[in-house]
Amino acid sequence: AKFELIMEDGASIDLALYDMSGRRVETIFAGMKSSGRYPINIDCKNYANGTYSLVLTSGDVVLTKTFQISK
User: Fold this and answer.
1) Dihedral over Cα of 21, 27, 28, 31: its sign
2) What are the residues whose beta carbons fall under 8 Å from the beta carbon of 21, sequence distance 6 or more?
């Protein structure tokens, strides 16, 4: 799965992948990111078919992108 992260300002972020039961299955990135565009590539071959959420947390802001994996 491919996504793009666009940071308008630098910030400390936590970007993680969750399954639909709410279990964190992968930490994509945790730390500081400066402003800019960042490609996010998730290797889905080790995950079962189903619905997953990509969750970005920065301070009190939480953004979620839900997507399906089907092989």
Assistant:
1) positive
2) none
Tokens for 33?
């990111």
Q: In 3D, which of 7, 57, 62 has the Cα closest to residue 34?
A: 7
Does 71 score more than 90 pLDDT?
Answer: no
Q: What are phi and psi of 61, to 5 degrees?
A: -100, 130
pLDDT tens-digit map of 15-64: 999 999 999 999 999 999 999 999 999 999 999 999 999 999 999 999 99
Q: Collapsing DSSP states into helix, strand and coil, what is residue 46? A: helix
Q: Which two tokens stand for residue 65?
A: 């992108």
